[in-house]
Amino acid sequence: MADELGSSVVVIHPGRMDTDRNRSFDSMVSGLSRIARFAEDRNVMLGLENKEGTDPENLCCLASELINAIEQIGSPNMRATFDIGHANLTCGGDASKLRDFAREIKEYVIHVHVHDNGGMLTEKYWGDFHGALGTGGIDFTVLKELDFDGVYNLEVFSIEDVRAGRRVLEGLI
Fold it and tell me: Would the pTM of this model clear 0.90, i.e. be above it?
């Protein structure tokens, strides 16, 4: 369907672990390898998204684990969707760690998700509340580390938040 619609990237969330993290990771890589071969045949790029580390059952929270998955899949059509909000949660709201995360992942990025949060676990959504830019603690200058000129998707909840976010991004990218 993505090919027929002319979509440049399909974003995929990684798996979640059951009782055995390694087995869950290997199963995810196996399934995504099949999907990547299918995508190759249709000229569709896939962006495997980093997830928030505040949920201990998520896979691919760390840049290193996401890169490992992409490299094991070994498809030119499997890249990364960098979600700055998820990375901020994984980095505990530490701007220096977030900057390092972006530097580590930059050569794999095909798509970017942008939203704000406080960088810590909360009672709702594992802290992943998808706030408007400026409502949390993220230093969005981190996005410059990516040296990326593709699609930035503002994952917020109102058109006003999209407009405000666009103004912030226009000054950065």
Answer: yes
